[in-house]
Design brief:
There is one protein chain. The protein has three domains: 90 residues, no CATH class; 247 residues, no CATH class; 44 residues, no CATH class. The N terminus and C terminus are likely disordered. The protein is globular. It has 13 helices and 13 strands. By secondary structure, the protein is α+β, with helices and mostly antiparallel strands. Keywords: Membrane, Transmembrane, Transmembrane helix.
Length: 458
Amino acid sequence: MATKATPMTLDGFVVEATDERRPDEQRQNGNEPPAYSMVQEPVPIVMPEPHVEQALISESMPVPQPGDPIKAFPSGPVSQVVQEEPKSSKDHSGSSDASHFDDEKEKHEHKHGHTHEQHLRKKASDIDHEYKHDEVVSTDPVLSRDAKALADFIRLYGMTHPSFSVHLLGTHEEIRTRVVTNSDGKGSHVETYVVTVTDFSFSIDLSDVFDDKDAPVLYTLSDDVPAYRGGMTMAIETGGARPIEQRTLVHRSEQSAQKDANDAGRQLGQPPWLIIPKATTHDEEARVGTTPQLSSRTFEEWLEDYIRSRRVVKEFKFFKEIYTWNLDALEIAILQLIRSTGYDTSVTIKFKVTPDCVHVFSPNRISKIFSSYLLIFLTSIILVFPFLWMWRRWWPGAGGKWEVCGAAFRVKRWELLPGTSPGETEQAAIERLGGEMPWGIGLRRIKAGREGVWVLKG
């Protein structure tokens, strides 16, 4: 609602706008602007009509009274001050609109639950990648030059719960006959052949065994565990951080032993950061409270090691592991259940984690060949891939692999029972208690796990 313009007294004197046109406009009309002078006598001032925002603000702000000091009143010609008044009003309106926009934006972000972490995840999701070979594969250039982008990408796709399932396949063989024409085209004969018939083939989704509130464990392998640490051969790195060329290589037999131990450890549900080749009988009770990050380097330092490397065809693999379930025992239990129905032919039981890793390759054409089974097959036909493989494997600085860390997802929680302590074995607890068996030791120390099999509670 418009209000009538009234004079305003400011600290004993009043100013008045006599002409809203600028001096340049007055010169164009042939009129010279009046001489600037300091105001000495009170004259009435005509204020512009206030905006709605100004009207609301003026109701809540105290009106200055005659004799009150004025804060930061500009000095200079009166006409200049008056001419700047509409601009000041416009700026105030703009700042009010900007403040209103910021408030609406804050309400919108709060309503939709936008957080800083979600913004990072959205940015990482924009990186080019694809799902193939049960892996998250990317050759995006940013992942080979920006360690922070690589960390965000791995945390987004590597630290989320995978799909966990078991596939059951039942088959049997049948002997059949058919009539075949002789090669000379004269006459025919009967021959027998064997075919494999599929009786059943289905998968059971086990993903609901994960607890959404249970965060995955970020682990790194110990320095003395054979692993790919930037070269094309497994190595160890004891005695502190060293360049790739100075990391101690292990013999081929040790590499094979470590790979076999990894496969066996996964089937037994062992934590992936504690798998040791040719291990004796382990008491799982002693693993409670063990830190999963055993490397002298942090996870971020391994990413930096990959980024700084100048190797041409390099790759960084971040594993996604399931542990605490004895898959061998569970497989036997499922097989016995199938046999109890009278089915006595071939049965195949396979557990599957999808995706099972995040696989990052350096951004070049040769790396794209190694990242695709189809391209490997096509280049093998024309005898190109064998030469690429040998060049990458043996030429100094050509290829490099990093397989030293991952995320472990547990499906069973281990808790200490009264009378035991972290890292203490059953025998050590008995000796500490003077031969007495603490509560829970022996047959009383087992409970039914989520897989339906009685397991040790430690």
